[in-house]
């Protein structure tokens, strides 16, 4: 607010009386007058040429006694302008901008996730079945319902026997454990294998159930014994759908649960469908390569079929443990899984 006219200039210096005025010379009063005027925002009076007065003529209006004594104590501060400080603006507007970015990111993430989950999973179910009668005789295929999970000799023994040579030197199907026992004995492997083998998070209980359901589903359609499917899953990935894909020198990619021939990889957004697709690829084959059905039809024996699944062919010698183009312990491992092996040390030469 501007100062009222005459508030500071209401009399001559000669009119000053009292002890307070006695301590000020004209020059000091003028300086004090100037200081007070600046502090209160009072404009400087016009200057004239009077030699006795630095401010101008004798008409200059000095401070009165009352106004002079009123200046004792701290001078009033210049009032702040209304509004926010620069720092407050930065904090408020910066915080608002950050919050807006976070909200946009969350919304975009939700939209992408919903869109991804809503996209259909391309799964065409296969009707491929085993047709070779020998495969039913030797045990790789069965007409029994997969709902019969108590098939087999029970739990078997957690021990490893090294098998080699032709298929007839491997254990007969009458020595295989039941599906129920085989599943329960390996359940902990399903629960821990992903992290153990550095394939990411371990299977959830839901994923494990989805693997179980997929085995039973594809066994029903393909007529491949569910124990044989389970043994190959354990051999290929230890039951981890996230198992890394391998790529052959010819460019064949082998992903997931059964490391199938250019097959399906695991999709977290379509867990059940992708797991079913992986089991189908390994059991019934893909458009690019054979599964267990095709190998059982070709060779009859489940052990020969396992070797064919692993390497794509049987060695001329007929020795299923021959290393040429294959994992030497592969068929021996599968045979031991079918008879109860879980944690016992392998006795296969060269096993890691």
UniProtKB/TrEMBL annotation:
InterPro entries noted in UniProt: Lysozyme-like_dom_sf, Transglycosylase_SLT_dom_1
Keyword Membrane found: yes
Signal peptide extent: none
Transglycosylase SLT domain mapped to chain residues: 215-315
Natural source organism: Friedmanniomyces simplex
Keyword Membrane appears in the UniProt entry: yes
Keywords: Membrane, Transmembrane, Transmembrane helix
Record protein name field: Transglycosylase SLT domain-containing protein
Stretches for region Disordered: 244-268
TM helices/strands, residue ranges: 90-114
Source superkingdom: Eukaryota
Pfam families recorded: SLT (PF01464)
